[in-house]
Amino acid sequence: MLCIGFIFLFQFFQEPKVEGDQSVENFYEKVGSEKTINYLIIGDSIGRGSGASEPNKRWFQIWENKMKDTYDVDFKRHMVVQSGSTAFEGLNKMNATPHLGSIDLTFIVFGENDRKYMTEKQFAQFYEGLLRQVKKDYPDTEIYTLTESPLDNELFIQKITDISAHYLAKNIDLRPVFNESTYSAFELTTDLVHPNDRGYQLYAEAIFQETQNLMNQDTQIAVLAAPLHDDVNIALQQSSAYTHASHPYKGIYWYSEDAGETIKFSFSGTFLGMKVKSHPAGGMLDIYIDGQPVRTLSTWWPLEKERYLYISSGLEKGIHQVTFTVSKQKSIFNESGKAEIFLSTIITEGTN
């Protein structure tokens, strides 16, 4: 069945500015003059402070309080975060977020989830693409990249380090902070991944110490340098224009709860993702590109949430076919008795 669906083009790229407006006070100057700091966190569950026992125990709240006590500054915080997310999802969520005005500082917090779905080369494309997007949208922002404490893949860690250095972003590695602590990983985390209150206290202290060190120097904020890796000026395109399906869309979603039902799309480009509604009864999809199995992805989530899920990248340039088949498998977390799929669009490469 051929269906003429809808296509959304996301083209948020402006002409790059190597540096921000020199007449605008940067983050460090604003702190020094006791002005309100607008800052942004783009990240995963650690980025949003999951694991803290209460809101004021999250790393960014502790950091804010330390900064207020020391420098008498106020903060306005913006959050583009999602538990379980990758840099690919972060880039998509950024593009779906209305412009936030002036941003003085941006935290980028990814890596621990990315390593489960992609290689370090694939990760680098979206991590660098996200950092570039931040500097294009907010040319006057400083950037702090956090290397998360549980991340143990040295190839991913090196990519974060190299990309940060290339753009003069300030990388704060939380691994040695944990490793050099007198506490064990069991005493610093809720599940050996997410820091607990004590762990986030260490995060905040390390970030505060680095901020203080940078305040005492003639620090240049992050810049939009020439690309370090290929294909990092990323435009995103969403499409619901399928080529064949067991049945048509119902509203804005292709819905199914029957194993074996399929929907197929044709797309052009080197990467692929999908936008879905994740929820407590979410089912799983077996995904094939050009007839070859790629991965099985779950749409289960404890809360109903729109998600942008990474599928594949590094594909040959040109036309590809993707098939989504409702899987017989079911998430071990799904206790609903159902396995429902709500597929909104595929996410592919657009044009700048």
UniProtKB/TrEMBL annotation:
Domain (SGNH hydrolase-type esterase) ranges: 42-202
Question: What InterPro entries does the database record attribute to this sequence?
Answer: SGNH_hydro, SGNH_hydro_sf
Question: What does the record list as coiled-coil region(s)?
Answer: none
Protein name (record): SGNH hydrolase-type esterase domain-containing protein
Q: What is the lineage of its organism?
A: Bacteria, Bacillati, Bacillota, Bacilli, Bacillales
